[in-house]
């Protein structure tokens, strides 16, 4: 800082141009001083990180660390204790890490697998974490509140600037100076604003004050009295600043000096002949404190640089985690353990040089958060897939339970096999319900297949008996055909008897049907062809067989509909052919065409007669 920081400029003191230029230079210097002072203020919080009370944590036990944290967390100034609490946390974590490693080695020595190892936090660790996270919450709350307050202060000072601008641009009144003083006092009472807005805000403020003193004349006597008063106040501040060189706690000295600078820049101008000497006195007192701080930082520079190198190495190590992708939970958990170990190593490393601290921290936590962001996305997608699969699984269970008591063995078995295949293709379901869903689905399937197995034992014996009975009927048909006393009535009765007999073993179905057909064909050959219509007889036999079916009515109606459609199609064809004969009557080949169409018409009419006969037979059933 090179010149006195003032909130008012004294350009109205003399009327000459030289004096006005001197006042302008003083104002520029004042802005520079303001900016430097604000920078000192912004560094105040960082200074706290390097001047905590010295406590030998390495000699404390876990219980003592918990007690120490509890005591510190209940003290008032949490920002002052922030660094110390971090060191307590690091020391406590070393105990936990060591206990976990010992427990793991013991678990492995007893035959346990590392992946199955579960290290649960002790009551002591839970108590420690309770105090620690409560402390972090207080720190975050204070910092957030401070930022919010700075935004509020920015709005208040912006409003004051608008009010000051109205005074500067308004007409001269006897109340102008009083209003300006009120604005100055209010401006001074408002706390700090965001550092990004501070310089421009002060530039606007000082520029308006500059214009005010340029454009308005002030009663010289009043101004002189005001300057003398300001001289007394600033002299007192110089004495306080000079006393700070003897304050042992450098952090407290820096904080107090920042407060004095803030007060100094708001007091206003002093008599011109006292201005430079006063400012040099205040600056010398400030430099004495700043030199102590510089000396401290110089002594810590090598340590901070080494810390930065260690942290940058961890950042580079962390970069491989940024694009990590995996399809298995186990892989994500393994990587999580690795990244948490890196975090522990990071927290054990001390501070880095101020100029690179923000950038280093930003790089580390950006990579750290990206990994867990990707992990959260994975589990979110996995939860959605599992929820969808659970709904599908419940749907499959419902279908299986609907089928489990069905006695249509073959069709039901096919449906259940398909459901089982669908189940295998489901994919992951929620862990908490996975076993219960599978047990429920398996129980439904097992119920059906157990029922079918028991039913098959009974049916096999019945089917074997039916096979013997059908073989006996076939033998009777063959015997009757061999005697030469064949009749439609007898064959109809024997065929009916055969059809009434139930199922036979699957392996014998084709063979017994072939034997039956051969026997019936042999018998039919023995019937008198003149008094026997083979087609009508077979049609009747087929209808008799249909009548034994549960859906007989539906089947007979369908067959009747089919016959009527055939008759209708044939009648339409006959009409079409007759029309064609009339069309070709004048053709040279008319006779030849007529013969061809006559044959077609005759065959169609014969077929219609047969179909109508079948309809009449069908009506009997």
TrEMBL record:
Leader sequence residues: none
Biased composition (Acidic residues): 1-17, 35-56
Keywords: Coiled coil
Pfam families: DUF349
Renumbered residue ranges of the record's region Disordered: 1-58
InterPro entries: DUF349
Regions annotated as coiled coil: 240-267, 553-621
Full protein name: DUF349 domain-containing protein
Species of the source: Algoriphagus pacificus
